[in-house]
Amino acid sequence: MAAATVIEVAAGDVSEVLKRQGIDADERVTVTIEPELIPGRRESRARVIVAGLTDDDIDRLIKQAQREVEPLLPG
Fold first, then answer.
1. pTM for the complete prediction?
2. Distance between CA atoms of residues 61 and 56, nearest Å
3. Whole-number Cα distances in Å, 22 to 3, 12, 57
4. What region does 33 belong to: left with phi over 0, alpha with psi -120 to 50, or beta?
5. pLDDT 10s per residue in the chain (75 long)?
6. Domain ranges within the chain, ordered by starting residue
């Protein structure tokens, strides 16, 4: 049995991502919804849209912040 694969993706992109993974439409998958994150994400997304940022902008900013923080992490 293969190890599980975890992919975080926007709800609207699930079908596309599954297709790219080679998963047929009739195959069973498990989707985990993290409800405690949804209200914060909705509020944050509204602010992002007002600021005129795109999902790509957000991804870029997150990756930039990760690069800045990683050298400071112990280990």
1. 0.42
2. 9
3. 16, 18, 28
4. beta
5. 677 788 888 888 999 999 998 999 999 988 887 767 667 777 777 888 888 988 788 888 888 988 888 888 787
6. 11-72
HEC profile of the chain: CCCCCCCCCCHHHHHHHHHHCCCCCCCCCCCCCCCCCHHHHHHHHHHHHHCCCCHHHHHHHHHHHHHHHHHHCCC
CB burial readout 3-19, b (16+ within 10 A) else e: eeeeeeeeeeeeeeebe
- Locus of tokens 């975890």: 6
Q: Which residue's entry shows tokens 């991804």?
A: 59
